[in-house]
Design a protein that fits this description.
Pfam families: Glyco_hydro_15. It is an enzyme of class 3 (hydrolase). By secondary structure, the chain is mainly α. It has 15 helices and 11 strands. The radius of gyration is 21 Å and the shape is globular. The structure holds 1-deoxynojirimycin (2 copies).
Length: about 450
């Protein structure tokens, strides 16, 4: 630990250098895309593991992330499913491993068990359980895989219907039954009811309903649950704060008085393809939350006032965070949190391009940071909206530049980067960091993951 900080201090002056002009953003993105894809593949099926094991990171010590988390693996497999270059065998391995996991005995004795060992058995130590976002993310990814295979004329259609679909139904049935019960959040720290968890549950159910449209399966239970979850989600909006509160009904765990959390944005990005305006990236309440969260990190991390203006704000999980990637001390910015800003901005732009935008008392602060603009409606053809979009694009790219600057020169991305001097911290080559970069760059290319 000591040597790490000594090194950081020695290299600290580097952060004053302007962003390197040696390689422009687009070039870096295409290079990083390759590196991130390859790093994800390296973290899947590493030697000595059961096939379909997605390591959260190859780091086995300080911190030990050599497990398959249901959440991380589902979110990573979701990104892989959206990439043409992904080999179907890999997805098949993921599905097989996860179907076994659904039938493995776990300490929570439920589908919300958070993490599994390299041989596929469940982790039995003390941990925050259940984490009920996991089955929802898995169902979303399984549905995406099923659709990819059906669309591509996959040879074994009966297998999809007889094996994969029942696994999807297990997760959806579970969600319909437990959604209102307290569970641990995606950061594994707070037992309560969470905006993020409810949002991914709602998407899983709605995607399931769509999937079963052509069959005569009865989806009434899913319809009712998704409706009730939607009603509950609306109650997370705080008029007093003018942003979405991440958690309600806290039973125990970390205290987070602000209620601000980047998981709110992660949820918006994951559900964006529902396209229903319900807490989507471009919706008023989401934009209000986006700006409030950014403004909470700006003064919090010293690096934000020290780095070049060409970079975007360094973003962490939530302002009260004290997890430093190894232990608890002070929280740091995270790559996946910073990438979430690029992704959200681009997904918001895609909504405005279709529907135009209304600047109002809820989202005003967001737009004012982008440019001087009066309240009112701006159509997609209006010069004002075009200007807003141009400036938002620029702001979105700045977050990518932040990532480019703080990652290692070889394209490596850990979990976090230091709040004082920007050096990487926490689990090395976190699989999710690389997947988050890929979704952000895909959003820039106007590709929406379903
Ligand atoms: C590991 C968890 O995954 C992380 O979210 C948490 O902050 C740390 N443990 C510290 O408790
Ligand atoms: C800690 C994070 O808080 C959690 O979200 C994640 O699942 C694990 N690390 C593994 O990456």
């Amino acid at each position: 630990m000591f040597t790490r900080y000594l090194l950081l201090l020695l290299f600290a002056p580097l952060i004053y250098y302007p962003v390197q002009g040696d390689i422009d953003l687009d070039q870096w993105i295409s290079k990083q895309h390759k590196t991130s894809f390859e790093t994800i593949l390296d973290n899947i099926n590493p030697p000595g593991t059961k096939r379909g094991f997605f390591a959260a990171s190859l780091s086995t010590h300080q911190p030990d992330y050599f497990y398959t988390w249901t959440r991380d693996s589902a979110l990573v497999a979701r990104v892989l499913t959206s990439l043409q270059e992904t080999n179907d065998t890999l997805l098949h391995d993921y599905v097989d491993f996860q179907m076994d996991v659904q039938n493995t005995s776990t300490r929570c004795n439920c589908l919300g068990e958070p993490k599994f060992n390299k041989d596929g058995s469940s982790f039995k130590g003390t941990w925050g359980r259940p984490q009920n976002d996991g089955p929802a993310e898995r169902a979303i990814t399984f549905l995406l895989i099923a659709n990819r295979w059906l669309d591509n004329g996959y040879k074994d259609t009966p297998w999809i219907h007889d094996t994969l679909v029942p696994a999807i139904i297990r997760d959806l049935n579970y969600i319909s039954k437990v959604w209102y019960q307290p569970s641990f959040d995606l950061w594994e720290e707070v037992l309560g009811t969470h905006f993020f968890t409810l949002m991914v549950m709602r998407k899983a159910l709605l995607d399931g309903i769509d999937f079963f449209k052509l069959s005569n399966r009865n989806v009434e239970e899913y319809k009712l649950a998704s409706h009730l979850i939607g009603k509950r989600i609306e109650t997370f909006w705080s008029e007093q704060h003018n942003y979405i509160m991440a958690t309600q009904n806290v039973q125990n765990g970390v205290q987070k008085p602000s209620g601000l959390d980047v998981s709110t944005l992660l949820a918006a990005n994951i559900i964006a393809s529902r396209n229903d305006g319900f807490f989507t990236p471009g919706s008023d309440k989401m934009l209000a939350t986006v700006v409030a969260l950014e403004e909470s990190f700006e003064p919090l991390y010293p690096i934000n006032s020290q780095q070049s203006d060409a970079l975007g704000t360094c973003i962490g999980r939530y302002p009260e965070d004290i997890y430093d990637g190894y232990d608890t001390s002070v929280g740091n910015p995270w790559f996946l949190a910073t990438a979430a800003y690029t992704e959200l901005y681009y997904l918001a732009i895609a909504e405005w391009e279709k529907l135009g935008v209304s600047v109002n008392s809820i989202n005003r602060r967001f737009f004012q940071r982008i440019m001087q603009v009066d309240d009112g409606y701006y159509s997609p053809e209006s010069a004002t909206l075009k200007e807003i979009i141009k400036k938002t694009t620029h702001a979105a790219d700045k977050f990518l530049k932040t990532i480019q600057f703080h990652q290692a020169r070889n394209g490596s991305m850990s979990e976090q980067y230091d709040r004082y001097i920007g050096f990487m911290a926490g689990a090395r080559d976190l699989t999710w960091s690389h997947a988050a970069f890929i979704t952000a760059s895909k959003a820039k290319d106007s590709h929406l993951i379903q």
